[in-house]
Design goal:
mainly alpha; about 80% helix; disordered C terminus; Growth Hormone, Chain: A; 21 helices; 3 domains; globular; Arc Repressor Mutant, subunit A
Length: about 475
């Protein structure tokens, strides 16, 4: 027994070390990618210094990142292959960066396209370490830590490029790459048997594919607003360079920090609707307000705060879905490629509109239409996610309550629904995400009997799913009188 505890403790420490290592090396790489490749201020500052138009180069780079994300899973199938990709790519990225210390040439465009493709692959391949290094119910925190740290480092690189020199910013970003390479050398490549076993889930491939397609559609639609922001809102406040160089990502980081540290008791699903409203209000503010500092603070805070909420939402959803496929790079790559596709489409639309008239209302009307479509898609998406990921932080908080709290909430709901003692027991286990077979085993009854009780429970509450039962329990908690 003591030996088993020691092995579990050693495994826990190993995972914690792998988790921290994965966050640090990927954040260092991501800061370079965000500040340089992905419409970064280093690239814009460099092209501005040489008086060249970066639009074509930028769109080619974003398209290449999309391709790298989408195709990575076809070639990278193990942790060992992922580590090899990181190490080789980081060295190549340093070579690409060196080319930008010289006057513009074909090497600039070729480097951006090739580097962006490999960068997309590196982002998708990180899924191997997210899956093996972080327990399922902790991945939302790992993702939040990654996004926060990478954006803080990105701000430092942007400010260096804008206020000191683009070449100094580029050199600084290359140091980040060297750091990423050094930490990546320490990455473990051993096969995680527990992670492999976790992939053997009972949900059918068809269910996973259906959910992933629906989630990708949702991501593409809502991130069109992000692309519009790059091409419509950011240029309108370009005269506030000192402020925009550092404040741009602050609301995004703040939203990530708040969402990361929210108690699991709080139902984050409602916050998604608030975030959609924030996006709509920010575009309305962009049209109705002037181009002053206060207006920028209002518009940017609302929009980037909402983007922080949604980025963490689908990053963490994809993080939980990694357990349903033997190659996690495919899941993360496909999901995040939808994010980049939305940015690409929004950017193309925004660029086409603003090339005619930057003050046109068309981008804002389009953005508000996107908000309306998103509101339509969110309820069915929530239903699909609740069915598959029963204990995700954005969808359900019941599984994280203490045993006494669970009992109190079930008892309250049982009295409300007039459930029998046995029905209450079944409801409690059902809310914990347990299967009919597991419930039958724990209560020493048959699966058919469990189905009978579940049917009665749903009938008494007038519902049709476990997700709706969770909502009822949470509403009972919200309406309970304060003690």
């Amino acid at each position: 027994m003591a030996n088993d505890r020691g092995q579990r403790s050693a495994l826990y420490i190993k995972k914690m070390n792998e988790r921290s290592l994965s966050i640090v090396f990927h954040s260092l790489f991501s800061s370079w990618m965000l500040a340089f490749l992905f419409e970064g201020q280093i690239l814009y500052s460099l092209t501005n210094a040489f008086k060249i138009d970066p639009v074509g180069m930028v769109f080619c780079g974003v398209a290449a990142i999309f391709a790298g994300l989408l195709l990575c899973g076809l070639f990278i199938k193990t942790k060992r292959a992922a580590k090899r990709l990181f190490l080789c790519s980081y060295l190549f990225f340093i070579l690409v960066s060196v080319a930008f210390f010289f006057p513009p040439s074909i090497f600039w465009t070729a480097g951006i396209i090739a580097g962006s493709f490999l960068a997309g692959g590196c982002v998708a391949a990180w899924a191997f370490y997210l899956k093996s290094g972080t327990p399922k119910n902790e991945r939302i925190k790992t993702v939040a830590d990654l996004l926060i740290l990478s954006n803080v480092l990105m701000i430092l690189l942007n400010m260096t490029a804008i206020h000191i020199s683009p070449h100094v910013g580029l050199a600084f970003s290359m140091i980040m790459l060297l750091g990423a390479f050094a930490f990546a050398l320490k990455l473990p490549v051993d096969h995680d048997a527990a992670s492999s076993a976790a992939s053997e889930q009972k949900e059918s491939p068809m269910s996973i594919a259906k959910l992933l397609v629906f989630l990708c559609l949702f991501i593409v639609i809502i991130t069109i607003n992000s692309g519009l922001m790059y091409q419509v809102i950011n240029p309108a406040f370009a005269h506030l360079e000192v402020l925009t160089s550092w404040y741009w990502a602050i609301p995004y980081i703040a939203a990530l920090f708040v969402m990361r540290n929210l108690p699991r008791r709080i139902n984050r699903a409602y916050i998604l609707y608030v975030a959609i409203a924030m996006i709509g209000i920010s575009f309305i503010g962009f049209v109705s307000l002037d181009r002053s500092t206060v207006s920028y603070l209002v518009v940017n805070t609302l929009m980037l705060g909402a983007f922080g909420v949604y980025d963490l939402f689908w990053w963490s959803i994809l993080g939980e879905m990694l357990d349903f496929h033997k190659n996690p790079a495919k899941i993360l790559g496909i999901g995040l490629s939808a994010n980049v596709l939305g940015v690409l489409l929004g950017g193309l639309i925004g660029n086409a509109v603003t090339s005619v008239n930057i003050h046109s209302l068309n981008p804002t009307l389009l953005a508000l239409a996107v908000v309306c479509v998103t509101l339509t898609l969110l309820p069915p998406l929530h239903k699909q996610l609740s069915f598959l990921l029963k204990d995700h932080a954005y969808l359900s908080v019941f599984s994280e309550m203490s045993a006494q709290e669970q009992t109190n909430q079930v008892d309250s709901a049982a009295r409300f629904g007039n459930l029998s003692e046995r029905e209450s027991q079944v409801a409690s286990l059902l809310l914990q995400g347990k299967t009919y077979r597991t419930i039958a085993g724990e209560l020493f009854i048959s699966e058919n009997t469990v189905k009978y009780y579940v049917k009665n429970i749903y009938s008494k509450f007038g519902i049709k799913s476990r997700a709706e039962l969770i909502d009822i329990v949470l509403k009972k908690e919200d309406t309970a009188p304060l003690q």
